[in-house]
Amino acid sequence: MRYAEPIARLITELTRLPGVGPKSAQRMAFYLLLRPAEDARRLAEAIIGAREAIRPCGRCGNLTDQDPCRLCTDPERDDTVLCVVEQPRDVAAMERTAQFRGRYHVLHGAISPMDGVGPDDLRIRELLERLQEGRVREVILATNPNVEGEATALYLARLIKPLGVTVTRIARGLPEGGDLDYADELTLARALEGRRPV
Amino acid sequence: MALYRCEGVVLRTHDLAEADRLVIMYTPDRGKHRAVAKGARRPRSRLAAGIQPFTRAVYLCWQGRNLDGISQVEVVESFAPLRAHLERLAAASYACELMDAVTQENDPQPRLYALLVFTLRALAEAEPEVHAESPAALLGGLERLLLSFQWKLLALTGFRPTFDRCIACGEPVADSAGEVAVSLAEGGVVCDRHARGAGMVRVLPAEVTGAVTGLLRAPLKAALGLRLSPGAAAALSALTRDYLAYHLERYPQSRAFLDVLREQAGS
Ligand SMILES: [Zn+2]
Ligand SMILES: [Zn+2]
To answer: What percent of chain B clears pLDDT 90, i.e. is strictly above it?
Structure first.
């Protein structure tokens, strides 16, 4: 059957969300439409509020409501160790381990030759600029242990080592092929502890 | 649930909802084949290692209504160096992207599969005789293997070029001052008389068409020993690129990363 236009539009928008198929989108749409109007308004306002308040930190690239973000300005954190990750959600995963007290740099992606994603599409220039400041002594490459993450780590190691900075890679507690943000805290903490020079 | 075994090489994967991955592989028995690996992004997944791109494995699959799935993997050749060296990774990405572009599901071509396996093995093992540690030397060797791969791929998919006689009239073509005219559209050399009517004509050193003929005749690995004058090498790369783009109507995106690496190795 054909839905009234506003319903169809809502379903289309929900289908764009990651992991939401047409069936779930339909279920969510009808759920929202049968709840009190106030519920839908609260959800819509939360989405718009977050979207307008949150932006990438100009320094580390993590998502934040203040720029530079708290992780970049916290005086308790160690300026000499920099952890490089693919996505803001990976910063959250590392923070959950409570093992890392250095700073972060978020690349916003990983090198993926077949998808046409190259070094210029990532925040690599910003990373090199931070390293030029001279305070960082160790860069921990915490990209995903899959092909794209490995390619990114290899590429970065080659760029950074000539700068005289120690480059390490989080270790094999993480089996090949997995994704960082699906690792539990303990596995990730062990991988961080067992990092090795590359 | 119906189970079946199939051997294949993983061309690429896409992340799906939850922690699943969609695996696109090339198989000798089914042609291109797609299957979901449930939970493969979780660190404890027993499937994760065996569905990484470039892996050759035997898969135990279940039949789904819309999409089949992988329940077990037994790795035959992991081709680990292809994921551990940037240059090899870039070259393998290029080869697999091209395979993905030219093949279809339910269209098994065992010879294409064999070419892919030989190519990945050669890319994993290639040791350029000089300066093995230098990225530039390694990249040069891998690019030569890719040249051979591309021409063999074109030949197996029905685009084998004819370089020994005019493709229009069949007369032997005398090269004038070491140059020959090649029509991309006709797929071979053309004599003076037929060069005018033919589409997309390029005038090239005869050394170039000779090199392609040699690559097509020799085993893939022999490409490592290919020696050309700098001018002919550039013309061969350009001919390969244009010929491929003309007949396949697309060009692998992975080329860009190979070019990035080449630029850095040169500087
Ligand atoms: Zn920040
Ligand atoms: Zn002719």
So the answer is: 65
Q: How far is CA A195 from CA A83, A131, A158, A166, in A?
A: 11, 20, 17, 12
Give the number of domains in chain A: 1
Of all residues in chain B, the one with the smallest CA distance to A113 is B254
Which range marks the domain in which residue A104 is found?
80-169
Point out which residues pair with B6 in neighbouring strands: B59
Say if B27 is an interface residue toward chain A (CB within 8 Å).
Answer: no
All residues at 6 or more sequence positions from B100 whose CB lies less than 8 Å from its CB, including other chains: A114, B11, B12, B24, B26, B32
Please answer yes or no on whether B253 and A175 come within 8 Å at the CB atom: no
Q: Is residue A28 part of a domain?
A: no
Q: Cα of B154 to ligand 1 centre, how many Å?
A: 50
Q: How near does any CA of chain B get to the CA of A76, in Å?
A: 31
Distance CA A67, CA A69 (A): 5
Per-residue pLDDT, B249: 80
Task: Please report, for chain B, the start and end positions of each structural domain, with discontinuous segments joined by +.
Answer: 3-77, 81-266
Kindly report the average pLDDT of chain A as a whole number. 90
Q: What is the distance in A from the centroid of ligand 2 to the CA of B202?
A: 15
* Ligand 1 midpoint to CA A74 (Å): 10
Classify residue A38: in a domain, yes or no. no
Dist. CA A62 → ligand 1 center (Å): 6
Tell me how far apart the alpha carbons of residues A21 and B17 are, in angstroms, rounded to a whole number.
9
At residue B128 the predicted structure's pLDDT band, cuts being 50, 70 and 90, is: low
Is the pTM higher than 0.80? The answer reads: yes
CATH number at residue A113: 3.40.1360.10
pLDDT at residue B49, as a whole number: 85
Q: Which ligand is nearest to the CA of A83?
A: 1
Chain-centroid distance, C-alpha A32: 29
Domain B81-266 has CATH 1.20.1440.120: yes
Give the per-residue pLDDT at B174. 73
Q: Are strands B68-77 and B3-15 parallel, antiparallel or unpaired?
A: unpaired
Cβ contact B89–A113 (<8 Å): yes
pLDDT of B250: 77
Domain B3-77 has CATH 2.40.50.140: yes
User: Residue A190 domain-assigned?
Assistant: no
Pick out chain A residues at pLDDT < 70: 1, 172-178, 186
CB neighbourhood size of B114 (10 A): 12
Nearest Cβ partner of B48 from A151, A154, A178? A178
Which range is least confidently modeled, A122-131, B128-137, B238-247? B128-137
B3-77 and B81-266 agree in CATH topology: no
On chain B, the residues whose CB falls within 8 A of the CB of A175 are 43-45, 48-49
- A32 lies in some domain: no
